[in-house]
Structure formats: structure tokens, C-alpha cells
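Hi support team,

I'm filing this because I wasn't sure whether my run with zinc ion finished correctly. The job status page said complete, but I'd like someone to confirm that the output block is well-formed before I use it downstream. Pasting the exact inputs I used:
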Amino acid sequence: MQCPFCKVDNDRVVDSRVIGEGSSIRRRRKCLECDRRFTTYERIETSPRLVVKKDQRREFFNRDKILAGLRVACQKRDISESQIDALVGQVESDVFERYDNEVSTRAIGEYVSRRLRKLDSIAFVRFASVYREFHAVEQFAPLLSAVSAGADDDYYADDASAGGASNGSGPGANGGPGLDGFGGRLR
Ligand SMILES: [Zn+2]
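And here is everything the job wrote out:
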């Protein structure tokens, strides 16, 4: 595997572990050239699913987009990268078990929300505010404006850097009264 730092292909696997209930393997590698460490993931190749967006445009299922959306939602929360990756693996399984060809962004968003909600309520609200249109969202504007700005119908934030959750005063600062309302809607 080519080292992401020095680009030399000369490494040693220092740790391997199964994640996502056996759906993938995470390998910690050490570059023998520059001595730095990096991580690779190995997973079973699955047939491509098409994701149908709200405007009926279709694109290939891309786990990296879910990952990017989740990273934004989970910023500054006590959630590790491996927990996020495991969650995406579970959502992949959810989708691949139930859909053969096409799946809507909304369905994927629901799967992600359901899993994320068990993990962290703040991250859940942030994620939900990005992918779903809540009629009540105005109520929570002060809390959610940072993350909902620029959001479209996507189930994942297309542009993770535009999430805005990086400023410390974001929705994470205060769970507020919104949680119950959102929870009820998604149940
Ligand atoms: Zn290197």
C-alpha cells in the first residue's frame, strides 16, 4: 500500500481488527520508509446500488458521502472514527439487505438516523437537520442554523466542509428543547 505521507510502497501491518460485525477489517500500517502510520479498510465488494435523490437524479451509492455527513454531525462529540465507520457499515448492511437496485436518499437517511440516535442525540439532531425537511425546523433555527445552512435534500452533506458545525457555539452547545420534537417524528 502506498504511504499517504511519503508515497513509498513499503509498509508493514501492525494491527488488524474486525469491525462492523465482521463486515470489514481495519488494518493499521506502518510505513517502513518514513515510519509514519496509516489505516486501511478492507471490505467485501457489493453490487452497486443506485441512490435516488429527491429530484429523481440517480447516483451510485457512495459510503464516503455518508461518512462525510456523519463526520460533520459528530464533530466535537465523544464518538470515535471507528464508531462512525462501524455505523456506516451497519447502514450499508441495512441498505444492501433490503434493496436490490435503487434506494432513496430518504431511506438511507432514516437508517443513518436510527443508528445515530442510539449513539449520540446531538449528532442525531445535527444529521437530521441536514437531510430532512422539518416543518418545525424554524423553531430550532438558533440551534440548527449552522448546520442547515446550505443543506439540500441530500441524505449526506455533499460538502462536508460547509456544515459549519466546526464552530464551538454550534448546536452541540445546547441540546435544547428540540430533541423530543425530533425524536417523536422519527420514531
Ligand atoms: Zn511513508
